[in-house]
From TrEMBL:
It comes from Amphiprion ocellaris. The keyword Membrane applies. Residues 1-11 have a biased composition (Polar residues). This is Golgi phosphoprotein 3. Residues 14-41 have a biased composition (Basic and acidic residues). The keyword Membrane applies. GO terms for biological process: Golgi organization; Golgi to plasma membrane protein transport; Golgi vesicle budding; retrograde vesicle-mediated transport, Golgi to endoplasmic reticulum. Its main location: Golgi.
Amino acid sequence: MTSLTQRTSGLVQRRTEAIRSAAADKERESGGEEDEVRRGEEEDDDKGDSKETRLTLMEEVLLLGLKDREVICKSDAPTGDVLLDEALKHIKETQPPETVQSWIELLSGETWNPLKLHYQLRNVRERLAKNLVEKGVLTTEKQNFLLFDMTTHPLTNSTIKQRLVKKVQDSVLEKWVNDPHRMDKRVLSLILLAHSSDVLENAFAPLQDDQYDLGMKRVHTLLELEPEKESTKPNTNELMWAVVAAFTK
């Protein structure tokens, strides 16, 4: 604006030179307009970046709110699974209620908070492995590691594993429905949690290149979903999306 004012003032004072300076003034004005356009574009870019930053911060706040919401037990009716029943018992008896993030730490046995150890599930990995041994999926062996023996649980029933792998593959290939709310909730949860554990690609490794690319593309479509937004849709499982937010965001 200053340069335009000075230029206008100069033209008024030098009326006798109007003809000679017309071409030069027109060129300068054209350059000034281009500068204004560039400045306007830069300001628009800055506004766009600022808006995008604000949206990102809002999304982070919403996600934080989802996984930090308190878990309330609506029913402690037996499920038939010892670990699940024990988890429900802990959740029901805990006052004040813990958040989703806290329960993930407590129920996985990974917390070191001495004030909350009585809420923690004991020997989760060993009990899960023992359950799979009883079902004939795994077996129990002793392996020697230098000065001590370690109990391991190798896979014995590869048929069950292949059946599960095929189910995961089909969910993003032949049986792809392009809507997470129409997918089986267990399979959807398995895909998202397996990805966060860096084991999902193992399930897609046997596929042909085009199938692999298509499957991983659809997996990334699921990973790009916003748990907070999905949890508000009708007939959805809010707790499932809160767990997904805790592991994937």
